[in-house]
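User: Is it possible to get a 3D structure for a protein together with its bound compound? The compound here is zinc ion. I've pasted both below.
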Amino acid sequence: MPSLIDLHCHSTVSDGVLPPTDLVNYAADCGILALALTDHDDLGGLDEAARAAKSRDVRFIPGVEISVTWRKRTLHIVGLRIDPTYPPLLEGLHRIRAGRHTRAEGMAAGLSKIGIHGSLEGAYQYSKESIISRTHFARFLVEKGYAKDTRSVFKKYLVKGKPGYFEHEWTSLDNAVRWITGSGGVAVIAHPGRYDLGRINTSLLMNEFRNLGGTSIEVVTGSHSVPQYQQFAKIAKQFSFSASTGSDYHGPGQSYIEMGRMPSLPLDCVPVWKNWPEVRDIVVETV
Ligand SMILES: [Zn+2]
Ligand SMILES: [Zn+2]
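Assistant: Yes, that's possible. Here is the predicted structure of the complex:
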């Protein structure tokens, strides 16, 4: 039985390809009953998405995905049920977005060195009004024929050690958790299986996150393999975290998993929405 709750996805406000209204309509068409929009470092799509959700009878949860540097690694922290008017959150995200431009310039300079010119302008054409991200560079590089799809372009050009990689310091884990929880939201470690942390660093991160006030991790996500569902369900239990679930949908053909196709959370998980009146009455069959 697929999960009808999706607490992680992206619109054109960050690096998704569907505008907020289209994204919500698509989710509704896929049978999603509760949806969180979690654009990278930007809350600009929340009002529009909330309106669209209301008209389609989808329960809407305002969210965000914050870029964090933790021990020289980039992590993503999702905030759910945030207050989009909370000044420290707004100011913090504003600073992160300014940093994204600096990073984009560094990435373009690196690509120029190997003869790929015009990538900054090219990436900005894809990002239009939204924040600039590596995905926009990836789309530009695919369009120019440097790789066959965005996934292989990352491996070839945009990850650590490759010419288009630029070391960038995002905000701290402490800041991200404080902005989210300070606004009344729940801080969630996004796709923890994607960071290749190993056992010791995973424990360190989970402990530190918990001490800062984090209370949840993603267990079922488009970025996890099936064995990782069980692995992170176990870790959630071990650290008394609730479990979240989200497709990390970026648009048709852009994602690991389609909306409405994710399996439900493993039975022994405490769902992050357990005490959310707007979601908890949705009956979800478990795997
Ligand atoms: Zn992410
Ligand atoms: Zn995401």
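Strands lie at 5-6, 34-37, 59-70, 73-80, 186-189, 216-221, 242-246. The radius of gyration is 18 Å.
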